[in-house]
Specification:
Two copies of one chain form a homodimer. The first copy, chain A, is α/β, with parallel strands linked by helices. Chain A folds into four domains: 1-37, no CATH class; 41-88 and 286-361 and 475-529, FAD/NAD(P)-binding domain (3-Layer(bba) Sandwich); 95-153 and 274-281 and 365-465, Polyamine Oxidase, Chain A, domain 2 (Alpha-Beta Complex), CATH 3.90.660; 169-259, de novo design (two linked rop proteins) (Up-down Bundle). The first copy, chain A, has 17 helices and 25 strands.
């Protein structure tokens, strides 16, 4: 708390409250002071005063594990991290040209991207309210840039609408709002909301609907300057003698509904995907690398944990040094285990039956991501699409245009597939080359004629074949939350679990970090009480 | 047309069509090939073959004038630019720390911003479909970065709603959509749309409304996980033992309507403000400077035009060298005049009565912009607001958070006022210091307690007091367009006008550039035919 500048500011006070009372007290104080509740993050934890010589072994050098190690070392613990991969970051990871990656099944891909280009197989965007991620990015010097989620010029393809021709989000969204506004206005006129909305409120609502929906003076959403001001023009406004614009024609509303644009709305407007989003400059993996620098010297890479024992007043972790094949042991007073549950359930774990049941109870989702490098940014120069996402009802589900390096020249990597559900297993069952070819084929619906012509090379990651996670992320449901969640996150004698699977922000880095902070805060308390 | 790579691509063909047939033919071809009509820009003009020794004097080194000079010189003309200011760019302009600016009336401001910080008094954002601006930014090496227009965490203040307390766009927008969806669904149930929507379509529409509006299973927009997934949480999802989230409570719908959030929607979704928008790294003035480099040596700065004569087979421009007070003359075969109409109407202009009437017929709008430098980016660190705009019904109309340097530390400049209409004249009537104080007072509604506390210094530009434009931009209406527009843009013997005022994209740089390209294309044709 820096009071050198005079009277304490509200920020100083909040910081002091956080330091003295911890996250939950700070949270209440912020609420009382009228702060929006953007996050449960209340600043870095204050974990000083570890007993001399106390030690912690952290399993996994993903974000949760590295944050635990970083903060516990600051608190005075002797810390060691055991990590299977030969790099920090875990699922926080970018694949660059020259990298190679071998998946389960043995297929190895050598990434062919041009210098600086990348695919983020895992996380790829950071919401503005993921305060923990943003805090540590700033603290660890990770440069961020905007991630473009919503782009009005991006496309929506639905095989059941518009004869399978992709249309712009701009036109579909304009037509959705416009028709909804016109219909609701008509319903008010038809007394369809009598008893729900008073006549006076109905009139005021209609005025708002007119502006919102770009209706004309007769409350109709029709071809004209109003609708064109949102959906665009057949001939856009220009300069000189042909400057006068010509409006475009709204689509048939039933086709608009069939396109599923309302689903895209729900995507873009969802709390986790609202503007402003961020990404690290140079790839999401920059975060893992920055965390890795902070714990340099603490990590034993290429080490596969085979057994976790906590008898005899200590935690003993048995692991195999992958390069040499030799078996080794790490011993500490406590353990923070961030190993994904699908892997952990296959490791001999000396813990309560409840914890072991919880570990076994939560399945992992699968997802496949494909990066397609294109020779040029033709979507920018030819279609005025800068970043953002084009959606389709095909198995690839979407393609995303790079938010980095916009308006520059040279080759660039499109996220060519981001599959969910059954489509993921179908893609995972293919060879990497087949996945790339399939993504290229399916994505051509957005840019027919250009997509294949501009294609240069591709890389595909199927998370179910990832040797270090065996899946994408933990899939809790209402029943498993009820039966297993509190057991999973509780300190189990000398061991505590952390990671996105130990949070309610599953699949997001923020969940991993918040889980880690909560876990080490409780472990530290346990250690001081021991 | 580069055919070295093999068969001509569609792009090659379009380029060839543009070169051979000009903009209008290219436009038709693009339409026929299924290109979205994003712009009337069809690539740089092809103006080769000027008669040896032919010369053009360009009045004004704003973007329109500099582009005209750049392209006409390429075509072979001898070009000279006469500019009143001592810098290139005109209204494209950034004020940096150390700059000083004297407005009409004599008030001089010395800008106090920290190094690198700036206010853009004029243009400040570039839509994705302003293809001419984007083309020349790329060609002239202007680095661009995203401009954040829509930000869900930004605020909306309306003195008539919520007791004058600003609320987040996120919550208001979620509640607007949700209530509209619920009402329309109810109206369908109440048969309020019988005869408009079939029963089957009504059912399908309801399913879409449920997803779009975040309705629950009973088609209600109520407190719960659905609405919270968009509007946010009282306790957001977290990690560990307190991970479970607590939903927030939707606002009363009549307050939401009164807030005018539907007006903000219309702003953000309008064609000219849709995602993705851009700004130059380091200030909008970077564009003017980059254009200035391209015409280096051609510009006579500090020169005030007093008379334009086109008798005797040439154009003779009389101007005063402002520094010395001496009168001088520039002579050329033709003239591209980009002087704003409010200034031009005060200059002796030897042109047809029709053109002179047109010049006199178009009034200029006024606007005041205020830059407020704050000691820290408290809106980012404390309120999770990164870029974007907070709206108010107070005279300042909005404040905008900087899109540049997001997540960095140190002082930053907020656009503290962007006035329209009568409010602009009220602000223009104040001293610059009073404008800054008033903007600070009014903007405090968004960040009470913090705004004044963090304020460091400010700068205010009132366009009605700008010596080089006497206003903001040309205000055409339906009648003046009909009576004067074609006369204004026509080549008048040896003179042609260009600028945003000679376009249908008024107040935008794109209008100035497209107008310029159209004007010089016709002037060149006239010169070749002469």
């Amino acid at each position: 708390m820096d009071m050198a500048g005079g009277m304490p500011t509200r920020r100083d006070m909040l910081h002091a409250i956080g330091v003295l009372g911890g996250a939950s007290v700070l949270y209440q104080a912020m609420e009382a002071m009228g702060h929006a509740a953007e996050s449960q993050f209340a600043g870095p934890p204050n974990l000083s005063g570890a007993r001399p010589g106390a030690s912690v072994v952290v399993l996994g050098a993903g974000l949760a594990g590295m944050l635990a190690a970083y903060e516990l070392r600051k608190a005075g613990y002797t810390v060691e991290i055991i990590e299977y991969n030969t790099r920090p970051g875990g699922r926080n990871w970018s694949l660059y040209g020259g990298d190679s990656y071998t998946e389960l099944g043995g297929a190895t891909q050598k990434v062919g991207f041009a210098k600086g280009n990348y695919l983020n197989p895992g996380p790829w965007r950071i919401p503005y309210h993921h305060r923990t991620v943003l805090h540590y990015c700033k603290a660890f010097g990770v440069a961020l840039e905007p991630f473009i989620q919503l782009n009005h010029a991006a496309l929506i393809h639905n095989s059941k609408a518009f004869g399978g021709k992709a249309q712009s989000y701009r036109e579909l969204a304009a037509d959705w709002d416009g028709n909804v506004a016109e219909l609701l206005s008509k319903a008010i006129d038809n007394k369809g909301l009598n008893g729900v909305v008073t006549a006076e409120d109905g009139d005021r609502l209609k005025e708002a609907l007119r502006t919102w929906g770009m209706l004309d003076k007769d409350m109709r959403y029709v071809r004209g300057e109003h609708s064109a001001e949102r959906r665009g023009w057949d001939r856009p406004p220009g300069g000189g003698i042909n400057g006068a614009p010509i409006p475009s024609t709204p689509f048939d509303f039933s086709e608009v509904r069939k396109s599923g644009v309302w689903r895209a709305f729900a995507q873009h407007m969802g709390h986790e995907r609202q503007t402003t989003m961020f990404q690290p400059v140079g790839g999401m993996g920059m975060i893992g690398q920055a965390f890795g620098k902070q714990v340099e010297g603490l990590v034993r890479y290429g080490a596969k944990v085979t057994r976790i024992d906590q008898s005899g007043g200590a935690v003993t972790v048995t692991y195999t040094d992958v390069a040499s094949g030799t078996q080794r042991i790490a011993k500490a007073d406590y353990c923070v285990c961030t190993i994904p549950l699908g892997i952990l359930s296959q490791i001999e774990l000396d813990a309560s039956a409840g914890l072991r049941a919880a570990v076994a109870a939560v399945p992992y989702s699968n997802s496949v991501k494909v990066g397609l490098e294109m020779k040029t940014r033709f979507w920018e120069d030819e279609s005025a699409i800068y970043g953002g996402i084009s959606f389709t009802d095909k198995p690839i589900s979407m393609i995303s245009y790079p938010s980095g390096g916009m308006t520059s020249s040279g080759p660039a990597v499109i996220l060519g597939a981001y599959t969910f559900g059954p489509a993921s297993y179908k893609f995972a069952g293919m060879t990497p080359e087949q996945r790339v070819a399939e993504a290229l084929e399916q994505g051509s619906v957005f840019h027919p004629g250009r997509y294949k012509e501009e294609f240069s090379n591709g890389t595909a990651v199927a998370w179910s074949r990832s040797p270090f996670t065996l899946g994408c992320c933990a899939q809790w449901n209402e029943d498993t939350r009820k039966e297993h969640y509190q057991t999973l996150v509780a300190v189990d004698d000398r061991i505590v679990l952390a990671g996105e699977h130990a949070s309610y922000i599953g699949c997001w880095m923020e969940g991993a970090l918040l889980s880690s902070l909560d876990a080490i805060t409780r472990l530290h308390k346990r250690a001081l009480e021991a």
